[in-house]
Each structure stands twice: as structure tokens, then as C-alpha cells.
Amino acid sequence: KCEEFFESHTREAGTPFELQINVLWNVKDHKKALNPNEKLSEHFASGDSFGVYGDLQPAVVKAETKKEEDKVPVTILTGFLGSGKTTLLNYILQEQ
Fold first, then answer.
1. pLDDT digit string (tens) for 60-86?
2. pTM of the full predicted structure?
3. What are the E-state strand segments in the chain?
4. Biggest CA-to-CA distance, the chain
5. Which residues contact 88 (CB under 8 A, 6 or more apart)?
């Protein structure tokens, strides 16, 4: 039912959503907290029911990666006030 609710809510919204799970528990033993470092198979058997508490939030869409030939090389020149950044930049520009 959880997956069905999640999918129907995403379809209704028209944008992809992610489920941020804050708490997950086995309905048979709801007082025992699950350790995030343990495998789920230690707490759940096939067909067990579980409870979920969390938030639906807009899914983060990965930006497309550019091909190497489409990238523009950039040099960042940093330094403290008075350290000679402008002098170095002027020297580089004059020597080319």
C-alpha cells in the first residue's frame, strides 16, 4: 500500500517525488527500533508488514554531464589582499 500511495501521489502531482524515510518499523514488534547498520532481513521475514514515517519531497533531477570537448577550461586565481594577484595576471597577459 505504501508504494501504491507514493506512486499515485507522484502521478497526481505531475512531478517526480522521493520518499525520505525517517523511521521504519516492523508492525509485529513496533516497540523495537531498527538499527540502520543492520540488514533488513534481521527484522523482516518475507510477507511481513512494516510502518513507514517520512516525507515526500521533490526528486532531485541530475544535471546532464557535458562532454569533455564542450567544457571550457577555467583557472581561478585567489590570494590575500595585496598578495600580487593583479600583478601576476598582468604578467601572464603581457607574456602571451
1. 878 888 899 999 999 999 999 999 999
2. 0.42
3. 17-26, 50-58
4. 76
5. 77
